[in-house]
Design goal:
heterodimer, A: alpha/beta, Glucose Oxidase, domain 1, Enzyme I, Chain A, domain 2, TIM Barrel, 3 domains, 8-stranded mixed beta sheet, 8-stranded parallel beta sheet, 23 helices, 16 strands, globular, B: alpha+beta, Histidine-containing Protein, Chain: A, 4-stranded antiparallel beta sheet
Chain lengths: ~575, ~110
């Protein structure tokens, strides 16, 4: 049994079969070969070995010519390892006697060697890289064009990966994923958001561990404590089964809140909205009794297919959500992606700082035909219900005005063609840069609503890349700088009589509910999974008490102090919701 | 792994290992230890003989015909190893392998080659 500590980013526990994706995204399931097919599979393995040897020889000769014999020697070592009689015999035995699929035999056997090398306290440990190289070459030759993708999963799995890219997570067959664990990543990384949306546990920033596990092995994922347990013993499995069971019964209890309003003990009605990324998530929000969709992320449309989505793709997705919400508000956020994340060829040159680069509204304003296509679809959907549009990452008034001009232009276009839309569709902006928070008194006159995106606001205020585990600790929603910008934003909005919302992970955590209500917030947008808990929190507090808590928290100098204070304050609530 | 190597080492030599076991002590003299190139030379030489060849260092015993196994010894310069040969041509095998160590695997002392 091996317990690994990472960063907990999405709660819950699960036990399941591992699906391992290494840095190249190979998926090696534990699969067995029919007895009758053993000879065919052995021939396939032999062919892959021969192909791999041929490649190594080719590389050796090329490097020999270009750089000389000394540099080519590494390929001789690779060849010697590949042809190692012990290795070959082990691989053959795995297929012939244990009936392992050759891919699985290769992965299992070579990783075992790699692990032994890694454990050596000696320069020989470097040889582990060679073993991984050999594994990759063999797998490439074995899998060839049949390389399996995440989209092809057909049974429940726990996905273990070096890192998950947005396009990989977007392509997942979500019905079968029970949880995620990644070597890289921090709180607020894409994996975290997707896992939260799917309501499955996730642990990130674990550090290198994929060498210790093979596909098909049972693993336990503890998204509450940030643990991944490999090769769990029976006692541990039993203990986690109980926890899974207990979680289900708490969920059932919170489920009874569905039809009760989120009203504080002193009678203030709070709107609880859902955050969604995929149209299918809307059902989970409705099931938990949300008051609307406060954040509909539209990035998946750009990530799931190789071509740019057309107007119908957009319209189909939006109208499904709008119809399902049946007259309740749906806030659609326009594209919030960096050029670097786009599958289509929009990225002109490499960016050194993608987070500070051409992304989000900046990209939309640069790629006007793409932006107009999205706006046309949003406007068409506005004829079907209460649709509102929101622009992300606004940092200057010029951007806001440009975006609104494009919108007005698209409206004229639709009107000319007699296509129905809501001319009064509310237009809002995200407050997620310090610039927007500081200048909000100017912006507020030109928008119908604002939504504070705390994930980016924290990242930009504290200058921390939330996906970089080296500095992830500095990424802290409790930082007084963040709280002050948040309070300012809510104050400015309240004074102007403009509705304000907070989306982002902060609003989904009950630790912040009292603080946010105390700062005057009356609308929270949270992942579907958090709706019952946040609703329960709202129903157990009074706005008067919340004000005192917010005032006190805002006098504090450090994130640690704030965190300790809020944790104390929430303990009472948690006792009621979780106990 | 140690136990496992030992077990598969038994299988590896499969057809052969009957006859006496003889051994001799050798010292790794390469400045870089028993790294990939000498390990490869050693395994190649060992495979030329029918006898089972094993290398023993402290508690670890590895198959001399497998470069991967030999590398797991991580034997540094100065390490003392016992080479054991079991089989019909044990004596010749032991001599050939011993001479590889004596010749320092054809590396000059202090060579930086890897």
């Amino acid at each position: 049994m091996l317990k690994l500590q990472g960063i907990a980013v999405s709660p819950g526990v699960t036990i399941g079969e591992a699906l391992v994706l290494d840095a190249e995204g190979f998926r090696i399931p534990r699969r067995f070969v029919e007895r009758s097919a053993v000879d065919t599979e052995l021939a396939r393995l032999a062919h892959a070995v021969a192909e791999t040897a041929r490649e190594m020889e080719h590389n050796r000769d090329r490097i020999h010519q270009e750089l000389g014999e000394q540099y080519a020697a590494i390929f001789d070592a690779h060849l010697a390892m590949l042809h190692d009689p012990r290795l070959q015999q082990e691989l053959t035995a795995a297929v012939r006697d244990r009936n392992w699929w050759p891919e699985y035999a290769v992965s299992r056997t070579l990783r075992r060697y790699a692990k032994v090398f890694q454990s050596l306290d000696n320069h020989i440990s470097q040889r582990a890289h060679d073993i991984y190289d050999i594994e990759k070459s063999l797998l490439r030759n074995l899998l060839g064009q049949r390389r399996e993708t995440l989209a092809a999963i057909s049974q429940p799995v726990v996905v273990l990966a070096h890192n998950l890219t947005p396009s990989e997570t977007a392509n997942l067959d979500r019905r079968f994923v029970k949880g995620f664990a990644t070597e890289l990543g921090g709180p607020g990384s894409h994996t975290a958001i997707v896992a939260e949306g799917l309501e499955i546990p996730a642990v990130v920033g674990i550090g290198p561990f994929l060498a210790d596990v093979s596909g098909g092995e049972p693993v336990i994922l503890d998204g509450n404590e940030g643990l991944v347990i490999l090769q769990p013993d029976e006692e541990t499995i039993a203990q986690y089964r109980l926890e899974e069971e207990a979680a289900r019964s708490v969920a059932a209890r919170l489920g009874r809140l569905r039809d009760l309003p989120a009203e504080t003990t002193d009678g203030v009605r709070i709107q609880i909205m859902g955050n969604i990324e995929f149209p299918s998530e809307v059902d989970q929000c409705i099931d938990r009794g949300c008051d609307g969709i406060g954040l509909y992320r539209t990035e998946f449309l750009y990530l799931t297919s190789k071509r740019e989505p057309n107007e119908e793709d957009h319209f189909e997705a939006y109208s499904a959500v709008v119809k399902a919400m049946n007259g309740k508000p749906v806030v659609i956020r326009t594209l919030d992606l960096g050029a670097d994340k786009m599958l289509t060829e929009k990225t002109p040159e490499e960016e050194r700082n993608p987070c500070l680069g051409l992304r989000s509204i900046r990209l939309s304003l640069r790629e006007l035909p793409m932006f107009r296509t999205q706006l046309r679809a949003i406007l068409r959907a506005s004829a079907l219900g209460d649709v509102r549009v929101m622009f992300p990452l606004i940092s200057t008034i010029v951007e806001l005005r440009q975006a609104k001009m494009v919108l007005a232009d698209v409206m004229e276009d639709l009107a000319e063609h007699g296509i129905a839309f809501n001319r009064k569709m509310p237009v809002g902006m995200m407050v997620e840069t310090p610039a927007a928070a500081v200048m909000l008194d100017s912006f507020i006159k030109e928008v119908d609503f604002v939504s504070v995106g705390t994930n980016d606001l924290i990242q930009y205020t504290l200058a921390v890349d939330r996906g970089n585990k080296e500095v992830a600790e500095l990424y802290n929603a409790c930082d007084p700088a963040v709280l002050r910008l948040l309070r300012r934003s809510l104050d400015v909005a309240a004074e102007a009589g403009v509705p304000a919302n907070v989306c982002g992970q902060m609003s989904g955590s009950v630790m912040f509910t009292q603080l946010l209500l105390g700062m005057g917030l009356r609308q929270l947008s949270v992942p579907a999974s958090a709706i019952p808990e946040v609703k329960q929190a709202c129903r157990s507090v009074s706005v008067a008490d919340c004000r005192l808590i917010a005032e006190k928290a805002l006098t504090m100098d450090g994130a640690r102090e704030v965190k300790a204070y809020l944790r104390d304050q929430v303990r009472r609530l948690l006792a009621e919701t979780v106990a | 792994m140690a136990a496992e190597s030992r077990e598969s080492a038994m299988h590896a030599g499969a057809a052969v290992p009957c006859g006496e076991t003889i051994s001799r002590e050798v010292v790794v003299a390469n400045s870089q230890g028993l790294h990939a190139r000498p390990a490869d030379m050693l395994a190649r030489e060992a495979r030329r003989w029918q006898s089972r060849i094993e290398l023993v260092a402290d508690s670890q015993r590895v198959d001399g015909k497998s470069i991967l196994d030999v590398l797991t010894l991580a034997a540094e310069a100065g390490t003392r190893l016992v080479v054991e040969a079991t089989g019909p041509d044990a004596r010749e095998a032991l001599e050939a392998i011993g001479s590889l160590f004596d010749r320092n695997f054809n590396e000059r002392a202090g060579s930086q080659q890897t």
